[in-house]
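Hi W.,

Here's what went into the run:
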Amino acid sequence: MNWTPEDEDIEWTKNVLDSLEMNQDWMEGEMAFRRTGENTLTLLTRTERAESAIERVKQVLSILEWELAEDDAKIIPDDPMAAAEAMQKEAESWACPECNNVRVVDMNLEQGMWEIKGETQYVDEKGESQSHDRWVVGIACDCGATVHLSPDDYYLVAGDINFYTWHMYDGDALYCLRVMPPEQIVECVDSDIMEQITASHLGTTFQGNTVPPHMRGTFCIMVEASPAGEEE
Ligand SMILES: [Zn+2]
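Here's what came out:
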């Protein structure tokens, strides 16, 4: 490959690296990295077509004397059908990292607990480094461990109904909020059922909890739920 980084490429990358804390993620184009060492960046995923992009990153890193660990990187096929299939297949093989005994697809996926764990770093259109909350979904394994999935991974294994259901605590009580499809809202308004159920329009916070981004602006039905393991 005939590409030599410009001084500003090197400077730009250096600024990003300097701002990354340990275990913080950095999304760049179709690549996702995590800082895993003093001078080590780990490639988490990239698309198949980001091959030359990753070569460029590698060149800049070597100038800055940083190492890129890419052996365990997930490569996403360019063909969307093949990508979906490969991801689905991989998701089915995920197991609890604690006991290595229970597959994630066999866990109680209905009761994923959304929480903020650290920050994700990204560079905006102006080239400035920004960060936003990194959300994870905790799933309880029978062994007692909590497995944390990224929102995308959770969507993949749990499907859209579970994805658009949010469990949150208000004091000691656990509540389940489920997004209501528009046609159901109309039906409910027409039939006066609204008076019998608790419906909420979610903003950024709800009863002291930060609302996960995908639930903001949605209209939800709220019911009291039983803690993990018990039937609702
Ligand atoms: Zn386990």
